[in-house]
Amino acid sequence: MTAPGDLQQALFQRLKSDASLSALLGGAGLLEQATGNVAFPYVTCGQTSAFDWDTGADNDADQLVTLHVWSKAHGEAETRNIMDRIEARLADAALVIGPNGQTRLSLEFAEARFDEDLAVHHGLLRFRAITQENA
């Protein structure tokens, strides 16, 4: 089984190794949690849930992970560019996480909107991660 923390670590490793994404984020824009003085734009990892769609029970082999893109740029172009780069890097990616097998990612949902309360552009990317055990 793939623990949510292991999945997040593998996702961040894959994203941090992308020079184009690093350039869009200004270097250190991939964060587990944002602090009060973080520079925009940046990406955080949101909720990760493990779920068995057939039984309703926890199942680490089938997980949903949400990435959040935050930007204060005028217009949503910066947010969309970052989202597009993340999607290109992660969609249909195969990650090896521990000795258990291979985890495949597929994009389930993407949305960009302006959050008036925070005065930021907020992008959401939700990926499904399915781990297949080694035989």
Secondary structure tally, helices: 3
Question: Could you spell the SSE succession in H and E letters?
Answer: HHEEEHEEE
Described by strand count, sense and barrel closure, the largest sheet is:
6 strands, mixed
Structural class: alpha+beta
Number of strands: 6
What is the residue-averaged pLDDT? 85
Task: Indicate the radius of gyration in whole angstroms.
Answer: 15 Å
Q: Roughly how many Å apart are the termini?
A: 13 Å
Q: Strand order within the widest sheet?
A: 1-2-3-6-5-4
Tell me the fraction of residues in β-strands, as a range: 35-45%
Low-confidence stretches: none
Shape: globular
- Helical residue percent? 25-40%
Write a structural description:
By secondary structure, the chain is of the alpha+beta class. Helices cover 25% and strands 39% of the residues. The protein is built from 3 helices and 6 strands, in the order H-H-E-E-E-H-E-E-E. The chain has a 6-stranded mixed sheet with strand order 1-2-3-6-5-4. Strand 4 and strand 5 (101-115) form a beta hairpin. The relative contact order is 0.22. The mean pLDDT is 85.
